[in-house]
Amino acid sequence: MNAGPPPGALRLSARELAPAWPASCAASDSEIIAALCEPRARISPKYFYDAAGSALFERITRLPEYYPTRTERAIMTLAAGELRQQLGAGATVIELGAGSCEKARLLCDLIQPRAYLAVDISADFLGQAVAGLRCALPGVEVRSLVADIEDEVTLPADLGGGQRLVFYPGSSIGNFDPEPAAALLASMRRLAAAGGLALIGVDLIKERSLLEAAYNDAAGITARFNLNALAHLNRLIGSDFDRRQWRHLAFFNAARSRIEMHLQATVDARVCWRGGERSFRRGECIHTENSYKYTIEHFGRMLERAGFRERLWWTDQRRWFALFLARA
């Protein structure tokens, strides 16, 4: 595996599933409340993904403004031959944040692994997705694991043999600040095991207008996705957020090379939860998500620092998105 093509010579022209929420999330009230009580309140983006939020995100991926999903799929399709060559036969794919498993369906069609393990925090949504994938891929052993990928993920002891490919598509690595992103990459290297591979989708820096349009779609689906986090918190911590008192706000922070998503109070609002409360002034924000945008060189250095030995990358002709393959 080489370090990737030089600029101008791009490779492409164009816990086993349980019925209940995982224990780590059931016990997360204190984490959620502590974040809400910070001077600048925040909600972890993992709380976007209840069943409703997961379904809304799948709608986002099909929006005309949201380029990452379709661009990544095109790159993956054209890179399939080299992926198969690097992996060999009988591989096991481990997808982190699997969601609907749609990207895994494409990947498995392309590389024909022996086994696939979907890892996600949303138990109900994952169960439906895995059931559909089993029907679509009868020749692949399809399994699922409910886990928070921000914690240490313990793989099933009887997970199949063959080379491992840890799959983290969709530029989700950009949702993590630099230090947690580095920790997650190190965790991916551990999950891949010696000689295994990681396949990671990375959104690249581009014009502000393109970036901001992808998070402020005309249909308002991203706004609904952002606001749905409040409904999820209401169920988790017994809070009484009124979504009518909040609006979606997303913009590109050029100094930090990231899209920021916030929920902004449209009125003075008092929110109560079990054992506590907080007042928000009109215009005050709750920070819900970051989405960092990278250069090829920057992300390559991140992989190197995480201990990956070899790195290969592909991008589309416009250099909007990149797919990295790195060996542990």
Walk me through what this model shows.
With 328 residues, this protein is of the alpha/beta class. The chain has 2 domains: 39-53 and 208-292, no CATH class; 68-206 and 294-327, Vaccinia Virus protein VP39 (Rossmann fold). The chain is 35% helix and 23% strand. The protein contains 11 helices and 12 strands. The chain has helices spanning 23-26, 29-36, 51-60, 68-78, 80-87, 102-111, 123-136, 178-192, 208-214, 221-237, 296-305, and strands at residues 92-96, 115-120, 141-146, 164-168, 197-203, 246-253, 258-265, 269-273, 276-280, 285-292, 310-315, 321-327. The strands form 3 sheets. Strands 3-2-1-4-5-12-11 form a 7-stranded mixed sheet, sandwiched between helices. The termini are close together.
Note the quaternary state here. single chain
The number of distinct β-strands equals 12
Q: What is the CATH architecture annotation of the largest domain?
A: 3-Layer(aba) Sandwich
Instruction: Kindly name the structural category.
Output: alpha/beta
Question: Strand order across the biggest sheet?
Answer: 3-2-1-4-5-12-11
Bulk shape: globular
CATH C-level class of the largest domain: Alpha Beta
Q: Residue share in helices?
A: 25-40%
Low-confidence stretches: 1-27
Nearest-integer average pLDDT: 89
Number of domains: 2
Radius of gyration: 20 Å
How widely separated are the two ends?
12 Å
